[in-house]
Amino acid sequence: MRRLLLAAALLLLGPAAQAQQPVLNIYNWADYIDPYAIERFQRETGIRVRYDVYDTLETLEGKLSAGRSGYDIVVPTSEPTFHRLVRAGALRPLDMARIPNARNLDPALMARIAAVDPGNRHGVIYLWGTVGFGMIPERIRALAPDAPLDSMALLMDPQHLRRISRCGVAVMDSAVDVLPSVLRHLGFHPDTAAQAELDAAQRALLAIRPFLRSIPSPPALIEALANGEICLAFTYSGDVIQAAARAREARRAHEVRYVTPREGAQLWFDMLAIPADAPNPDAAHAFIDFVLEPEVMAGITRQVRYPNAVPASRALLPQEVQDDPSVFPDAETIARSFVAGTPSQAAERARARLWARFRAGR
After folding, report:
1. Whether the Cβ atoms of residue 63 and residue 54 lie closer than 8 Å to each other
2. CB-facing half-sphere around the CA of 288: CA atoms within 13 A
3. Which domains occur in the chain, in start order?
4. What is the pLDDT of residues 196-227, one digit of tens each?
5. In the beta sheet, which residues pair with residue 77?
6. Residue 340: is its pLDDT beyond 60?
7. Which of 117, 176, 185, 222 might form a disulfide with 152, Cβ 3.0–4.6 angstroms?
């Protein structure tokens, strides 16, 4: 109703007011929205949307840390970026009275965020997912028939990876989304700050580095998998599902599949949040409320194939999406999953050095 009243007011005030219509500045992941949702929001509210994208959490955090980003909506991942931004006072507390559709959110999922944002004051869940394997199974089996397709050993055992590398292997360029799984595979806590354990992770990553074709940004992995340029990737669940859909649409001869490691996958949540210095927080609140409508969320999940935190949206999705465990993991998969924490600043610096050496291969 608030959005319709705003649109009506702009029409009544005439061309001069419309020329000065508010602008909503959004900074989000690439390939992570339903374009129709943006069109509908602009049509219903009269608010013009300027939409920019990033491809790593480091890019987002660097932009906000510099201050005066000019953005009204950002979409940081709960750990560690959202947590650090909350702790630094870089996000504006939400006015929940202006977001009535927040009642549509799954309270159990929102409770998992409360550990880093007490009272869920600074953000609501946009989309969520896991980190695991995107693969073309038949190509991997042809090269390494004994390799375990559902285990981190598929990636971390050089004996397997040496053979698989012939059809192309890539790991996304995101230390915060790769290192926790590597550490857990080695038997360490995903949030460890112990230098000896980080050194062990570095040795393990350097051991597989010669067999990686690339360490690209996550969006680049979508096309590489869809086109069959690689047969194994370690990346976000939704990106693999998008790659699978593109391969089908292009009638590729190969099947792309998403597999979660049986040892347990990293679970993450992307948050809708408002920077503390947002130039138009009113439009930001209106957009968050709009996105949390079940019909809008269903359209976003249908487009990008990531699950959302609005349970009423699930019945509005095609049956094949509702029943796809790679989109909506079952209870057992969720129970095995883990949420990485936010390491100390000293541990973050150590991890950054580790990742730089891994990327360089030395």
Report:
1. yes
2. 29
3. 2-128+269-328 (3.40.190.10), 130-267+338-360 (3.40.190.10)
4. 999 999 999 999 999 999 999 888 999 999 99
5. 270
6. yes
7. 185
